[in-house]
Amino acid sequence: MTTETIEKHAVPEGFEDAFVTPDTYQKLYDESISDPEGFWGREGKRLDWIEPYTRVKDTNFTFGDVSIKWYEDGILNASVNCVDRHLEKRADQTAIIFEPDDPKEPAQHITYAQLSENVNRMANVLLSQGIMRGDRVVIYLPMIPEAAYAMLACARIGAIHSIVFAGFSPDALANRINDCGAKVVITADTAPRGGRKTALKSNTDAALLHTSDRVRCLVVKHTGDQTTWVEGRDVDVKAQMKAASPECPPRPMNAEDPLFILYTSGSTGKPKGVVHSTGGYLVYAAMTHQYTFDYKDGDIFWCTADVGWVTGHSYIIYGPLANGATTLMFEGVPTWPDAGRMWEVCDKHKVTQFYTAPTAIRALMAKGPEFVEKHDLSTLRILGTVGEPINPEAWNWYNNHVGKGRCPIVDTWWQTETGGHLITPLPGATETKPGSATVPFFGVKPVVLDPESAKVQEGNPAEGVLCIGDSWPGQMRTVWGDHQRFMETYFQQYPGYYFTGDGCRRDEDGYYWITGRVDDVINVSGHRMGTAEVESALVAHDKVAEAAVVGYPHPVKGQGIYAYVTLMNGVEPTEELRKELETWVRSEIGPIAKPDLIQWTPGMPKTRSGKIMRRILRKIAENDYGSLGDTSTLAEPEVVDDLIENRMNRG
Ligand code: 6R9
Predict the structure, then answer these.
(1) How far is ligand 1, taken at its centre, from the CA of residue 140, in Å?
(2) Is the pLDDT of residue 611 over 90?
(3) What is the helix, strand, coil percentage profile of the chain, to 5?
(4) Sorting pLDDT into bands at 50, 70 and 90, what band is 1?
(5) What is d(CA 552, CA 558) in angstroms, rounded to the nearest whole number?
(6) Taking the CA atoms of the chain, what radius of gyration do you get in angstroms?
(7) Which of 544, 625, 531, 527 is closest to 584 using CA atoms?
(8) Among the atoms of ligand 1, which is closest to the Cα of residue 412?
(9) Which atom from ligand 1 is nearest to the alpha carbon of 385?
(10) In this structure, what is the dihedral angle of CA atoms 207, 209, 212, 213, given to the nearest 10 degrees?
């Protein structure tokens, strides 16, 4: 389908009272670009400040001098903004609805008063472990309320949290603990998901063999399953919380003090520790949550992401709680006990905004609409997607079967690095086109550049790499411990701009269509993965001589992982070895990194200077080998014939 044949969807009826309407969008957007100081100076007031800021924006995108500061002389505490300030009006309002993995278990409704008590108690537990302002705390927890308590407890005492997705392996966990120099890791005994359990504590035990032996381990006894216990190192969090005081004074923090670090994959080397600030990040998360989802008092907001990803940080915890919202936390998976679980939960808790990933929509679409039809979804007002481009088929299914044509769909484009939505429709203001993230959020200046000449593509339509022309408060501040890498990754290639790593097209109407990554990052079920990470896991196996990994189109996951592997001399390629390598990658990185296809190859297509020609590997993985382009620089052109003959994707 080309963009020209895609119809525009008008804003459905009933959104006349939305926070942002077509007129206000244009007016506010223009102001946000022409007077960022005035605009963001006003928006910053949505938070409670201990000391108000007098300076709003101090940002520089010049390579070599990159520096990003917002509200830099303001003093605040993020947990006060997410909890304490709501107590006067909302003490008995539900802050978090916890829906457990097993539908037979009762849901929990945690009020703001209870949230406050738990956060304070957890903060006191951290203090008693010697955690101080600026210390790093790694959180390796499933989707349980304690994850929210832990994040906000860190924020309360000025510690910097770094959540590691509970699906990551012990090695991945150890690397992150070491990179940020964490003093403690907070984990749980075991984590039920989809009726199966992950042994988080034993993963943590394995990880801690590769870290400093001073790292303490705080364990949430969630299921009560038996685990090993290391005296002097392991701490029973729930028992300690019970004994701790329910009051812990919040630490006044500078707006630019880091709130959290979140590791994300890049095109080269090991994952980067993306650093987010306390003030600017929270302003941006709260504002985008309010406007993009038109969040109003009484709404029940459900973001299905995991807190281990940035979407969980901004739209399960920080944005909603800063707005005094009711946010739903779901421990389970979309397809267990059956493909109706999401809709059952929407029905049960009267969800008003539902925010998920295209890969989940495609997986549920494949099971048929009967699972949706069984449930009453009449409370839904707004539907959202995030993580990867959504194909128009999935968009239409979501719109017709879930939204019944009455819910605007907000296709939100953003990144771990951006803290919140950058390009997105606003439900009461933006006409939508299936597959397009539409128009920029306030204060966001998208720029399309020619990838080779770096020339700005003026006018519509346009196509090229997507950059952003100026800073916004939710922007990442640095890479933890490596500001140089921050500058090189995002500000070197296209001087003066923030480079997103995505390609895009801007159509006749000025709508943006994200076409996917232009670097060696692949997007598997909405999870970002550096191909280099999977490659280094593969070559760490003693039977592997060389490996190259690329993405290929996958009907449900968006992209699948295609690995080309050259074995050590004398090693026989067998089915058994294929399985062994799959298990190996799972254990090195985590289940999400397991290759979908492994092709054995006697050698890689290389230039004479020894560079692997990934363009060719990508084409063959896409089953598009008729148009390999210029292969004249190949050192051994015959390798390509073998690769084509033995290709694994013939779909
Ligand atoms: C929030 C998140 C970021 C990358 C990004 C892009 C892709 C995210 C998208 C989208 C098209 C959307 N992406 N949202 N592509 N349409 N609505 O996903 O962060 O994990 O850092 O991934 O995901 O390629 O560059 P992160």
Answers:
(1) 23
(2) no
(3) 35, 25, 45
(4) very low
(5) 8
(6) 24
(7) 544
(8) 17
(9) 17
(10) 120
Tell me how far apart the terminal alpha carbons of the chain are, to the nearest angstrom. Answer: 19
Q: Which residue do the tokens 């406050």 mark?
A: 116
The closest-lying atom of ligand 1 relative to the alpha carbon of residue 311 is: 1
CA of 362 to the centre of ligand 1 (A): 17
Q: Which of 261, 411, 415 to mutate to test the pocket of ligand 1 (most atoms within 8 A of CB)?
A: 415
What pLDDT digit, counting tens, does each position of 440-488 carry?
999 999 999 999 999 999 999 999 999 999 999 999 999 999 999 999 9
**Residue whose CA lies nearest to ligand 1 atom number 7:** 388
Q: Is 510 left (phi over 0), alpha (psi -120 to 50) or beta?
A: left
Atom of ligand 1 nearest to the CA of 527: 20
SS (H, E, C) 341-381: HHHHHHHHHCCCEEEECHHHHHHHHHCCCHHHHCCCCCCCC
Q: Supply φ then ψ for residue 335, to 5 degrees.
A: -110, 15
468 pocket-lining for ligand 1 (C-beta < 6 Å): no
Q: Tens digits of per-residue pLDDT, 30-60? A: 999 999 999 999 999 999 999 999 999 999 9
User: To the nearest whole number, what is the mean pLDDT of the chain?
Assistant: 95
DSSP H helical ranges for 209-339: 237-243, 279-292, 310-312, 319-322
561 CA → ligand 1 middle, Å: 17
